[in-house]
Each structure stands twice: as C-alpha cells, then as structure tokens.
Amino acid sequence: MSAVIDKADIASYAIRWGDDALILSHRLAEWCADAPELEEDMALMNLALDLVGQARTLYTYAGELEGRGRDEDAIAFTREERDYKNALLVEQPNEDFAYAVARQFLYDAFSLPFYQALASSKDATLAALGEKAAKEVRYHLKHSADWLIRLGDGTDESHRRMQAAIDELWTYTGELFVNDDLDRRLIAAGIGVDLAALKSAWNDTVSTVLKEATLQRPADGWMATGGREGRHSEYMGYLLAELQYMQRAYPNMKW
Amino acid sequence: MYTQGLDIPKGDKSIPVEKADSAEALRFQARIDADEKIEPKDWMPEGYRKTLIRQISQHAHSEVIGMQPEGNWITRAPTLRRKAILMAKVQDEGGHGLYLYSAAETLGVSRDELVEQLLDGSAKYSSIFNYPTLTWADIGAIGWLVDGAAIMNQIPLCRCSYGPYARAMIRICKEESFHQRQGYELMLALSRGSAEQKAMMQDAFDRWWWPALMMFGPHDTKGDAEGIKSQHSEQSMKWRIKRVSNDELRQKFVDVTVPQAEYLGLKVPDPHLKWNAETGHYDFGPIDWNEFKNVLIGNGPCNKKRLKMRREAHERGAWVREAAMAYAAKKAKRNAA
Fold first, then answer.
1. Residues B185-224, buried b or exposed e (16+ Cβ, 10 A)?
2. Does the CB of B319 have a partner CB in chain A at under 8 Å?
3. Which of A33, A56, A207, B221 has its CA 20 to 30 Å from the CA of residue A74?
4. Would you call A29 and B87 a contact, using CB atoms and an 8 Å cutoff?
5. Does B309 lie at the interface with A, CB-CB under 8 angstroms?
6. What is the pTM of this model?
7. Three-class SS of residue B49?
8. Each residue of B128-186: pLDDT tens digit?
9. Domain range for residue A66?
10. What is the CATH number of the domain that holds A193?
C-alpha cells in the first residue's frame, strides 16, 4: 500500500458517510407532524437534526480536501443521483411507523460501532466526528431499540407489522458490511473502518433486541447492494427531487 | 405561536357567568389585584378555570397545527444550515405544545380530552396556520411576522395571573424570540439576493402582512359594530389572564415591524399606511374582517387540509399507541410478578 494518502479518497469516504446521514435524516424529517405521538414527532426530528449535523461536518471536510470550492451545500444538493453513495437501507420509504423503527434500528446498530471505530481513525477530523457522532447515535440506538421491543412485544397487530418491516428491510443490511476498494485503501492507511469487522457487534445487538422484542431474526439470504456505487432504488429520484428542489430551481444563490 | 384572535366567541354558553360577590370570589379577585399568582390547588371561579383551559389548549393546538405549514419546507430547505434551523424550530413548537398541554392539565382536564376536541373540530387553533406556505420565503415571513406577533401577545402572558401558564410562557417567549430573529435573518438573506429572491420575499410579505395583523384579534371598541367583538375580553383583563388590549398590541406590532420591512426593502401592502407624527404611531388601513371571519369559520385556504392531516396522523398512529400501552401493561405485570 502506498504510504501517501490520497486526499481525494478521504473526501469520497467523508461524502459516503455524509450521504447515509443526509438521506436518513430526510426520511426522518418526512414524519414531521405525522408521528404517532407529539413526543415522537420531537424525537424523530431530534434524530434527523443530529444526522444533518453529522452530514454537514463530513461534507464540509470533503469540500476542503477536494479544494475545488465545493461547500457543504454544493455537495449535499447539486450532485447527480449516481454520485450519492448512501446505503440502500437509509433511502427506503416510510411505509408505516414500524418501517421507520426497523430502518432506524438496523442502521443505528451498525452506525454505533462504526463511529466508535472511526473515533480511532488516524485522520483527526474523522476521529473527532466519530467521537461526537458515537455519543449521539448511542441515544438513537436506545430510542429505536426501545420502540422495536415495544412494538414487537405490544399487540398482535404491532407484532405483525414490526416483523414484516424487519423481514422486508433485512435484505438491505448486508451492504453495510461490505468493504470495497476505497474502504480497503483507507483501512490500510489506518483511516477507514473495517466494515466486515463490525458485523459481530451488529449481530449481537440485533439478536439480543429482536429476542426481547419476541421477533424472529430473518435468515441471511440474498442481500441487495449497489448504494455504495450509486445504484439506488426507484425511491431515490423522488427523494432527491424534493431535497434538491431549491438549489435546482434557483442555482448559485445565497440563502 | 398564539393569537388573541382565539378569544371566546360571542354567545358561547359553556363559560359560566360568575357571581362576583361571594366571599371566595372577592378574596380571589383581591389576590389577582395584588398581583399574586393563582396556583392549581387554589380556589378559582369556574369561569376563570374554563377560560384558561380554553385559552391554553387553543394555544397548544396552535403550536401543534403550526408544525404543518413549517414542516412543509423541511425536506425542501435550500441549505443544510437552513434545514437544521427549521428542524430545531419545528421541534421547539412541538415542545411548546407539550408544555402547554401540561399547563392545561393542572386545571383538571386531560391532554386526551383536549386533543379529542381538536380532532372533532370543536376546539379552535390560531387561524394564521390556515394560510399556506407556498415558497421558501414564507418560512422567513412566518418566523419574522407570525412569531413576532406571537411574542407581542405572549410577553404580557408571562405576567398572567395563573402561575403554570405564566411560567410556561417565560420559556416559550425566549424560544419564540429566537425564532423571530431567525426568520428576519432569513429575509435579510433574500433581501441581499437575486431579483427572484427579492420578488419571492415581497410576495410572501404581501400574503402574510394582513393575516399577521389579524392575529391580534378583533378591535377592542369598534368590535361590536363588526359583530365579532370578543365579549370575554373585559373579564379576561379583570382576571389578568389578558393584560394588554388587542389594539394596543396590534399598534405596537405595526410600529416595530414597518421599519424592519423598510430595512429589507419591502413595500407594505397597505396604501393607507403612514407615519403620524402627532400620535407617534403608524396609521394603517382597515382590516378585512370578512376574511378573518371566513378563515375562523373554516373557509381559509388550508383549514380542511390541516385538520385532515392531524386526524389522519392520529388515526395512523393508533396501533402504535395501543401497542405502547399494551407493552407497558405487560411490563408492569412482569415486574410485579
């Protein structure tokens, strides 16, 4: 491995994780004024706000590393769909509250060990973000796990809905643990996180919580991939149309 | 956000007229006159209690419904900074709803009952939220004008005679004042922007100016002639639930806001608006009380949409709330075993 660390690699890496945070925050924000309880409206918005904060740090850093004059908003709002590298899981729609809980839980159970590991990155900015984000995500995981248990072990209807959401979204969890060439280069440089190594922590969390929720852990069958290469679901285009609306309709303005 | 335009409508029989000469009533009024705070366990006239429940719950409902027009732009905010500010603001509004429902509960009514009244259409919320947010500039206009008007209404409520309401208002006012400045700062950015941004800002201002003035409610004196004077205003003043008249507050709002609009390069959509050196106030044109009445009785551009969305969200969430209750019961049983 080359001892010289390519700044462009770190920028791409920061954008990838920023995309996870931004797209998930968008899905959470769609719950505004639509959550099952006022308290939950506030909680979901709070998670979304943390994620927007994480995305801003990552995009700003990526823009600095690139040195091409892109700021956080240029990166967040003016890329083509193929340039967004978020995992497919986070773009999945809010079919019902159980889907939102399942998506959040499956992702939080991954992002907590991810950010904890990133806190040891040799890149000081990523390490600092990892430390801050891990603190936030710890609360996110507690919140989503609590709901998973409540709904799994609540009524027959909530159990059925919660199991259906877990079953449906399970196929998007495999992608989270795949290291690609970029990951491998940055792992070798001591900057990136070995995603495959996070699988056992994720397995433990997921199995423990599913058991308490009286839910079945689905079998690890075929797993959908493509998000990290910018091949998204059909949902993504609509999400971006909304997210990018202002910057596309009124380009190059200050807001 | 809150509006005094929510005052009890004329002819509402559910608020009893009190005998003001009983020993208890006289003692109560003496405490009010001495500027003492009334606390939940203190004796209070039934009319005082009901008036407060009505006002506080309408205020709470307004916060909750107000999340909709602003939430309308969270997923389309133009920058990440603006998105984060708007998310935090909408979250604050939800929080205000929660404190206010809690304050109302100290008067012996449950949040569930109050929410039921909102959903069945018997409780009102601020009419201002029955106007749509059509462009991004509307988010600035709401923060600046609607939160600005709300602060004018609410600052005196921090000294309201009912302790829990007054204390809730202190915190709420601090947050609203932040929202107002954020809204103005959003407009300031537009005022320094492109021709399209300036046009967007003026359009939003044109649409929000008059509804913002209506937020202060009917005229104090001329109201009877217009058939919409709030008959309980006087009693509320005596009980120190309300401390400043609608017209005084409205005038103060106009006086403060016109120079701010001018600084932004905005034209106030009122041909009668003129500085009056004699009174030291701005004179302004007549308010279209027909529009006010129409929005109040349900004919505003978004009345049906707002309530429909609230009902649907409530219905869609029913299975979640049931599950949470069922789980809590199971857990309590297990812990007891």
1. ebbbbbbebeeebbebbbebbebbbbbbbbbbbbbbeebe
2. yes
3. A33
4. yes
5. yes
6. 0.94
7. helix
8. 999 999 999 999 999 999 999 999 999 999 999 999 999 999 999 999 999 999 999 99
9. 7-217+228-249
10. 1.20.1260.10
